DNA sequence: ACGGTGACGAGAT
DNA sequence: TATCTCGCCACCG
C-alpha cells in the first residue's frame, strides 16, 4: 500500500477535506511538495475513479472558481454539492477562500507523505 | 522512451 | 477587474 504516484496522493488528500470546506489545486500541489504541479493535480482529479468516492467537488481553483467541465462532474453539479454544504458563491460565481479554504493539520500531511 | 495533454496559476496587459 | 499568455510536470500510449 505504498504511495505510488502523485495521483494517489492527491486522492488521499482530497479524501480528508471536511464537509463545508474547499481546497485549491495549487494548495494540494504545495501540500504534496510540488508547488508547481497544480495542473497535474487537476489532471489527477479528472481521472478520478468514481468508485473511490472522494469529495472531488471540494476542489476549486485559486480564484475561488469552479474549473470542472467534464461529464457527470459538471460545474452545475459541483456548485450544487458545495451549496448543500453551506458554501456560498458571490455574484461573480466565486467562493471566498478566506472563509472556506481548508487548513489541514500538519500531522495529517505528514502521515500522508510518509505512507 | 518520449512527447502530447490538461478540472492550474501567476504575471502582464 | 477581466483576459490572455506561457511555464509547469506526472501520466500514458
Structure in words:
The protein has 115 residues and is mainly alpha-helical. The chain has a single domain, classed as Arc Repressor Mutant, subunit A (Orthogonal Bundle). Helix content is 42%, strand content 3%. The longest helix has 10 residues, at 6-15. The relative contact order is 0.20. The model has no long low-confidence stretch (mean pLDDT 91). The chain binds a DNA duplex (13 and 13 nucleotides) through α2, α3 and β2.
How is the topology of this model organized?
Layout lengths: L5 H10 L7 E2 H7 L6 H9 L12 E2 L14 H10 L12 H4 L5 H8 L2
Parallel strand pairs: 1-2
The chain binds a DNA duplex (13 and 13 nucleotides) through helix 2, helix 3 and strand 2.
Structural key phrases:
single chain; globular; two-stranded parallel sheet; DNA-binding; Arc Repressor Mutant, subunit A; mainly alpha; about 120 residues; about 40% helix
Helix percentage range: 40-55%
CATH class: Mainly Alpha
Q: Please, how many domains?
A: 1
The H-level CATH homologous superfamily, spelled out, is: Winged helix-like DNA-binding domain superfamily/Winged helix DNA-binding domain
Query: How many individual β-strands?
Result: 2
Query: What does the radius of gyration come to?
Result: 13 Å
Number of helices: 6
What is the N-to-C order of secondary-structure elements (H for helix, E for strand)? HEHHEHHH
User: Percent of residues in beta strands?
Assistant: under 5%
* CATH architecture annotation: Orthogonal Bundle
Helix/strand class: mainly alpha
Shape designation: globular
Averaging pLDDT over every residue, what do you get?
91
Strand order of the largest sheet: 1-2
Main sheet record = 2 strands, parallel
Show unreliable segments.
none
Oligomer: single chain
The N- and C-terminal alpha carbons lie at a distance of 8 Å
CATH topology: Arc Repressor Mutant, subunit A
